[in-house]
């Protein structure tokens, strides 16, 4: 699965599309910024009355993946890239766990144009989808069902609450792009970023379920924003 995604991005790069990839070396301040931006993104969703229905999805989620400033661009061929944080809820206490860093990448072919930066929140609604993500990552639309909660401030509104899909996506977008969708996007653990943030090699399951902790004001603030939903 990972190999096919890399081949797809290589094709996009060869055709002249700007493709964003993970940095060669992750730095701790970079992870702290992503955690802080994730919190700011959540607060923006909370303060926007257009996303009122998002609250029930977060309240019922097993986990959330928050991707601040996910980038998408292209001309006929599209590419997208982002780094976000996954937080899993403790099934006993309901408390949110520590953040694990994940990369999102993918591409598409079709009539599309422009460039876009979006704050994106994925609510992961069942244990099976969470386990796939923790074990080996997943491909949206193939390994997990995906549905739109709301895409943008005035597009794709959900008028009723349905919790039957594996994952729901909520996005606040900046910029112009002819179409925003994520089917075919790969989500994979960003091991260099997790290692840099926690100071040693650690897999996502250890982070979210086995008590790996970094004392961080940014994480505390992120937890507080999640408890506001």
Description:
The chain has helices at 2-14, 28-47, 54-60, 127-136, 191-198, 204-209, 217-227, and strands at residues 63-75, 77-88, 100-109, 114-124, 138-139, 146-151, 167-177, 186-189. The protein is an alpha+beta fold and 229 residues long. The protein has one domain. An eight-stranded mixed β-sheet has the order 5-8-3-2-1-4-7-6. A hairpin with a 1-residue loop joins strand 1 (63-75) and strand 2 (77-88).
Features:
229 residues, alpha+beta, eight-stranded mixed sheet, 7 helices, 8 strands, disordered N terminus
Explain briefly what this protein structure is.
By secondary structure, the chain is an alpha+beta fold.
Main sheet makeup? 8 strands, mixed
What fraction of residues sit in β-strands? 25-35%
In round numbers, the mean pLDDT is: 73
Shape, per Cα inertia axes: globular
Structural class: alpha+beta
Helical fraction: 25-40%
Low-confidence stretches: 1-26, 74-78, 109-114, 150-161
């Amino acid at each position: 699965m990972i190999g096919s995604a890399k081949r797809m991005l290589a094709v996009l790069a060869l055709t002249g599309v700007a493709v964003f990839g993970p940095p060669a070396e992750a730095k701790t301040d970079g992870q702290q910024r992503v955690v802080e931006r994730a919190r700011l993104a959540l607060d923006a969703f909370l303060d926007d009355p257009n996303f009122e229905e998002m609250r029930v999805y977060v309240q019922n989620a097993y986990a959330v993946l928050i991707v601040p400033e996910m980038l998408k661009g292209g001309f006929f061929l599209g590419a997208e890239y982002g780094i976000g944080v996954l937080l899993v809820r403790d099934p006993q206490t309901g408390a949110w766990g520590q953040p694990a860093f994940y990369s999102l990448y993918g591409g598409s072919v079709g009539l599309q144009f422009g460039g876009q930066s979006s704050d994106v929140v994925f609510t992961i609604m069942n244990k099976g989808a969470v386990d796939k993500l923790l074990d080996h990552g997943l491909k949206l639309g193939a390994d997990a069902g995906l549905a739109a909660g709301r895409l943008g401030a005035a597009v794709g509104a959900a008028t009723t609450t349905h919790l039957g899909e594996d994952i729901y996506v909520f996005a606040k977008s900046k910029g112009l792009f002819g179409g925003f969708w994520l089917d075919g996007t790969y989500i994979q653990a960003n091991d260099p970023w997790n290692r840099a943030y926690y100071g040693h090699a650690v897999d996502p399951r250890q982070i979210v379920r086995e008590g790996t902790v970094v004392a961080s004001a940014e994480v505390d603030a992120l937890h507080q924003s999640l408890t506001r939903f």
